[in-house]
Amino acid sequence: MTLKAIIFDVDGTLADTEDGHRKSFNKAFAENGLDWNWDVALYDKLLKVTGGKERIKYFVSDFLKGYTKPENFDDFVKHLHAIKTGHYTAMLREGSIPLRPGIKQLINDARKAGITLAIATTTTAENVTALLEVGLGKDWASYFAANGCGDIVPLKKPAPDIYNWVLNELKLAPQDCIALEDSYNGLRSSLAANIKTYITTNPYTLKQDFTGAAAVLEDLGDLPSFYKMIGLRA
Ligand code: XBP
Ligand code: MG
Q1: Residues 115, 138: one domain?
Q2: Is residue 126 domain-shared with residue 210, that is, in the same domain?
Q3: How does pLDDT run across 57-78, given as a tens digit for each residue?
Q4: Could you say which of 93, 117, 149 is where a domain stops?
Q5: Total domains, the chain
Q6: Bridge partner list, 123
Q7: Distance (Å, whole) CA 15 – CA 126
Q8: Taking ligand 2, which is a single-atom ion, which protein residues have CB atoms under 5 Å away?
Q9: CATH number of the domain to which 61 belongs
Q10: Rounded distance between C-alpha atoms, residue 187 and residue 157, angstroms
């Protein structure tokens, strides 16, 4: 198989963002008079559900006792999530969440080698823009042939929808591509789309089940050996 495209997950893969998300959720809750505080241990459990809006609903349904949902609960969750996204993008624009080791170099080397790049993420387009404008510069969007984010598909990871959407945009077969992921949910999603997947772990996902991954790496600090694995001649 000749490698034609690399499809990147965002949170936990391009950058170690989840604790930034967690802190932003807590700011949004506090600003709305809610005494909900997601500490690291609780957030670790809540990460079972992808998507910020879905995660808030999961928290309310499975972890909160004696909470009475307001009438327009869906709208309330959207409102909370929008406020959270405002805090999170502000955090990104301050430059407080850098790209993970090797990511920027991999993107540059892959582009030079003529390999197509794409994004397949559960997070919002707003968050991807804020992260990559800082991490890759204002022309970042031109590096990616497809940018699959959040709500553009009916089902979020671990469903394969976002990866199938990207494959359709790229007009490539799964066998022509590889995916870079960090989590169990992400791996389930890319494998369900039949894409060979490499995992880079982070503190939130270290102990998750990565059965089926082509390799599980701590990070991309050693690019030459990763290039050998994926057949990229930089
Ligand atoms: C990880 C997620 C996202 C983030 C929170 O996405 O599941 O929901 O945790 O971001 P990825 P939002 O697929 O990039 O690993 O609040 O914008 O959903
Ligand atoms: Mg991820």
Answers
A1: yes
A2: yes
A3: 999 999 999 999 999 999 999 9
A4: 93
A5: 2
A6: none
A7: 15
A8: 9, 11-12, 182-183, 186
A9: 1.10.150.240
A10: 9
The neighbour count for residue 35, using CB atoms within 10 Å, is 6
Is 89 found in the same domain as 145?
no
Whether the model clears a pTM of 0.85, i.e. scores above it, the answer is yes
Rounded-to-integer distance, Cα 198 and Cα 107, Å: 15
What residues are in contact with ligand 1 under a 6 Å CB criterion?
9-12, 18, 21, 50-52, 121-124, 127, 157, 183, 186
Query: Residues in the chain with pLDDT < 70?
Result: 1
Give the whole-angstrom CA distance, residue 89 versus residue 82: 11
**What's the gap in Å between 23 CA and the centre of ligand 2?**
17
Whole-angstrom CA distances from 24 to 31, 150, 171 are: 11, 17, 36
- Per-chain mean pLDDT for the chain: 97
Residue with tokens 């005494």: 35
Domain extent at residue 85:
18-93
- The C-alpha atoms of residue 227 and residue 234 are separated, in whole angstroms, by 8
d(CA 8, CA 179): 6
- Token pair of 144 as six digits: 């990616």
- The span from the CA of 131 to the CA of 139, in Å, is 13
Token readout for 22 is 């967690």
Q: Which of 39, 69, 93 is the last residue of a domain?
A: 93
